[in-house]
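Data card: per-record layout.
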Amino acid sequence: MPVTTKASVWKTLAPRNMELGPQDAPEAFTHSRLSKGSDDIAWLVLDRADESTNTLSEAVLAELDTVLGNVEGMGAKGLVIRSAKKGGFIAGADIRDFKGVTEAGEVETRMKRAHEIVDRLAALKLPTVAVIHGHCLGGGLEIALACKYRIAIDGAKLGFPEIRLGLHPGLGGTFRLTALIDPVEAMTMMLTGKTVHAKKAKALGLVDAVVEERHVENAVRAAVAGKMKTDRGNWKSGVFGLSPARQFAARQMRAEAEKHAPRKQYPAPYRLIDLWEEHGGDAKAMQKAEITSFSELLASETAQNLVRVFFLREKLKSSAKGESGIRHVHVIGSGTMGGDIAAWCASHGLRVTLADLDRNAIAKAIGRAAEFYDKKLQSGIDRRDALDRLMPDFDGSGVAKADLVIEAVAEKADVKRKVFDGIAPKMKKDAILATNTSSIPLEVLREGLAFPDRLVGLHFFNPVAKMELVEVVAHDKASRTTLDRAYAFCGAIERLPAAVKSAPGFLVNRALTPYLSEAFVMLDEGTPKETIDQAAEDFGMPMGPIELADRVGLDIGLEVVRMLKDKLDDPAPDIPAWLEKKVESSETGRKAGKGLYAYDDKGKPKKAPDTPAPGPEMSDRLVLPMLNTCVRCLREGIVEDEDSLDGAMIFATGFAPFRGGPMHYARSRGVADIVETLKRLEQKHGPRFAPDKGWEALGGET
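The structure for this 702-residue chain is written out next.
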């Protein structure tokens, strides 16, 4: 009997290689290869040249057309379409093709040709099978929908994210998905842009089977032989084939869309609802309308700005590559920020110890983490494993084993330095010390620290699970290795690192402070807080400055304002006495259940109805001081360039994405117009509106 070695055991347990069909003498193309096995099943393996991910460009689609012609003449009894890329099937259209598009007519011509190619796939007279692993998004899912069968590998994720680009599916998804599954579920997928995992896709009828890799070949043969059990169609498809039923559902969909995406700012959801309401059940009519609607949307300013946002995200992500060497994170401070940072890290596979002087605070943080995992992690095993990795550390012993120590205590320099003094001697020689300070310069915090080269700022934003950005704060003694590891750490936990220079408030909080401060001035002038918030929301902000101040925490906001007033010469209004009183009385905002607003038991602010509409000047009073400070930060070198600034402000504050970022908005509106408006506001309201001299470099006269 042979001896089983440890190595052979691991080889046996390792994931099976991907099934990519017969390997003998395949017909090779630029972006794919085609082969036919002894069972007469053809395999089309997609492998876009010089790219890590399969995306659909015009060249890729043209090649698909050529390949389909070959398939029609090769006598195959079935066709399998599969990706050779490890990451997934197809990630959608090549977004680079969308950039700078201005002519809807040109787009429509290109889209009609693309539809002809996908229709050719759908019309093949032999069984077609899409084998899907990893991501299958947008145009990739539309290719899969054109196949007669879809087999998903466990762990696959499918979805239509186009709505996030100001678009809706444009390659047949609108009519093929609503015909295949419950139309309301189909519309929900497209309207939200959310992905569904393989098992949910099977329950919806979007895929016909979910298998492990080793069963792919058998599943393919069953599908080609017509022996795969499918769960196609349902009674709802018949009901929503009737116009009155669609009209009723469409009204509800529009009402829901208005809560998240106002029509005047984001037209795509409403165009999609119109498509389905008017043409649902008539595939040809819906296809024609889809092409026209998609083309018009793609050429719109909203979509082009959201495409810009996509590339801003990609730019930030590009700095988050590499290996951090961080496996164990020790978090000190288990309040809202510290506890949520710890929970997030543990959910991404890191071992986390969470310390706090208050044992009850640790218990509450673990409880919040459990609730978060219940909502966000798909399986019980994933939830269990995440909680196992998140360990309460009552004696602080985890600091000696951690690769990264994150301090998230009160926003006071003396408190943070005291923490540093206590932990620095216990840390490993190569461990990084990070502070989650939101405003204190690292030059202040590093005083007395024996290893300033390993100190970095990692400023997360609240709520941690939703705000993607992390400011990576550099100072002149931080080593390149420390900064590179910090960027890579952000990538490992799926966060976007923004490089900023150490200075009071860094970038985001410094830019937000005049926005919030002006809202407080308006409050003192007697403007209802609901009206102030509405002015910002009308501009496109996800929430108004009053609600945002409560979300951040009035105590944290007060410390930031004090720091900026003490350390900077930026003109600013006085700190309101009522703000200090609220903090003293622990009315610190949403986390306390009361701040500028009172909150219900679900954490939603109680807003008074029927408050006056905002005046025409109000959004400028709020937003332009923010833009003015952004220009000042650029001039001072706090952030490297306009794109980095725009990305940081969008992903940390939700700055109106459809406007493309504060600097892009300034250039689109016109630098001269903004400077003139600031001058008018200065004359009316005081020197805090004086245009920064940095506008001159952008083409404005100050």
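Known properties of this structure: Residues 104-122 form the longest helix (19 residues). The chain has a mean pLDDT of 93.

See the next section for split statistics.
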